[in-house]
Amino acid sequence: MVTVRRSIFDEPRPADVAPVGRLDWLLVAAFAAAVAVEAVVRPDVAWRPLATVLALALIPALLWRRSRPLTAALAGWGVAGLLTVLQLTSHDGDLGLHAMLAVLILLYSVVRWGSGREAVVGTAFVAVVVALGMYASSAGRADVFGGSVLLLLCVALAAMFRYRADLWHRQRREIRNEERVALARELHDIVAHHVSAIAVQAQAGGAVAGVQPEKAAEVLAAIESEASRTLAEMRSMVRVLREQESVAYAPQRGVADLPALANADATPAVEVSLDGSLISLARPVDAALYRLAQESLTNALRHARGATRVGIDVRREGDAVRLRVSDDGANEPGPVPAPGFGLLGMTERAQLLGGSLSAGPRPEGGWMVEAVLPAQALA
C-alpha cells in the first residue's frame, strides 16, 4: 500500500501537454455565452450579478487547465466553495449558475494533466467543496449518490485517458529503442565488414609493395573500391533515415549473394558452400543469413590467428537452415573472451527470427559460429 501511494505521489506530469489552441478558445466562448444567457433568463438566482462575475472568473482557469492544472482546479472549485459559503451565511437560495458545472472539466484536468501530488491535492480539495455544497443544499441520499458517481466518473475517465496516453508513449519509446538497436546492428555489420576488408587489403599491399610493385596498384584499387562501397552504403542508410518520403535503394542481400564473399586468392582463403533448397526462404531469414555470414567472416578476418581458410557453409535441414562459419586458426590459451557487440547483435538477430546462434572454439582448432534459423520467419 505504501509503495502504491509513493508511486502515485511521484508520478510526474505528462510530457505531451498541448498549448492553448483554437478548441480552448471555443470552449471559453461557449462557456461565456452560457453564463451570459443564464444570467438573463434566470432572475431567480440570488445575488445574480456576483454569481455571474464569479462564473466568468473561471475563464482563465479553463485556459490554464493543462499548463497549470492544480492552480486551475483550486481557482475554479474555490469559486464554487465561495458561493457555497455565501449561501450558508446568507441563508438565500441557490447562488450558482448551471454553467458552473464547467468546474467538472477542471477536476478532469487535474487528474489527467497534473502530477501525482497535484492530482491528489486537487481531488481532495474538490471532495471538501462538494461535501460542503451537499451540506448547504441539504441534499438527500439520492443526490449524494448521484453527485458522488458523477465526480468518480470524471476522475475515472481522466485516469483512463492518462493511462492510455502513457501506454502509447511507452510503446513509441519501445519501437524507437528497437529501431535504434536494429540500426546499430546494421551499421556494425556493414562498416565492420568493409573496414576489415580494407585492413586485409592494406596488409597485403604492404607485403607485396616491395616484392611485386605492379600488384600494389591492384591492391590500392581494391581498397578504393571497398571504401567507395562502404561510403555509398552509409549514405544510402543515412538518406533513408533523414528523408520522410520513400527512397529507392538496393534490395537486401541474401543467401544467393554469399558466393561473392568467396576469395581463393586472399589469406585466409574464403570458401562458400551452399547445399539444399535455399530459394524458398522467407525474406527476413534470407537477409539474416547473409548478415550473419558476413559478420562471422569479418570476425574471422580480424581475430583468427594464423588462419589459412575460412569456410561458410549453408544447408537446408527440413524446416530449418543451418549456417556454419569456421576457420582453422590457432586458439588462444585461457578462458573464452566475453562476446562483443558483434556476437550480441548476431544472437539478437537470430533470436528475433525464432532461431539460435552459438559461437566458440573448435576442438580441432579455430573458431566456429553456428546459427540455426527457421526457413520461414516467425510471425
From TrEMBL:
<keyword id="KW-0597">Phosphoprotein</keyword>
<feature type="transmembrane region" description="Helical">
    <location>
        <begin position="71"/>
        <end position="89"/>
    </location>
</feature>
<keyword id="KW-0812">Transmembrane</keyword>
<feature type="transmembrane region" description="Helical">
    <location>
        <begin position="144"/>
        <end position="163"/>
    </location>
</feature>
<dbReference type="InterPro" id="IPR036890">
    <property type="entry name" value="HATPase_C_sf"/>
</dbReference>
<dbReference type="Pfam" id="PF02518">
    <property type="entry name" value="HATPase_c"/>
</dbReference>
<dbReference type="InterPro" id="IPR050482">
    <property type="entry name" value="Sensor_HK_TwoCompSys"/>
</dbReference>
<feature type="domain" description="Histidine kinase/HSP90-like ATPase">
    <location>
        <begin position="288"/>
        <end position="376"/>
    </location>
</feature>
<keyword id="KW-0067">ATP-binding</keyword>
<feature type="transmembrane region" description="Helical">
    <location>
        <begin position="95"/>
        <end position="113"/>
    </location>
</feature>
<keyword id="KW-1133">Transmembrane helix</keyword>
<feature type="transmembrane region" description="Helical">
    <location>
        <begin position="120"/>
        <end position="138"/>
    </location>
</feature>
<feature type="transmembrane region" description="Helical">
    <location>
        <begin position="23"/>
        <end position="41"/>
    </location>
</feature>
<keyword id="KW-0472">Membrane</keyword>
<dbReference type="InterPro" id="IPR003594">
    <property type="entry name" value="HATPase_dom"/>
</dbReference>
<protein>
    <recommendedName>
        <fullName>histidine kinase</fullName>
        <ecNumber>2.7.13.3</ecNumber>
    </recommendedName>
</protein>
<dbReference type="InterPro" id="IPR011712">
    <property type="entry name" value="Sig_transdc_His_kin_sub3_dim/P"/>
</dbReference>
<dbReference type="Pfam" id="PF07730">
    <property type="entry name" value="HisKA_3"/>
</dbReference>
<feature type="domain" description="Signal transduction histidine kinase subgroup 3 dimerisation and phosphoacceptor">
    <location>
        <begin position="179"/>
        <end position="245"/>
    </location>
</feature>
<keyword id="KW-0902">Two-component regulatory system</keyword>
<keyword id="KW-0808">Transferase</keyword>
<keyword id="KW-0418">Kinase</keyword>
<feature type="transmembrane region" description="Helical">
    <location>
        <begin position="47"/>
        <end position="64"/>
    </location>
</feature>
<keyword id="KW-0547">Nucleotide-binding</keyword>
<dbReference type="GO" id="GO:0016301">
    <property type="term" value="F:kinase activity"/>
</dbReference>
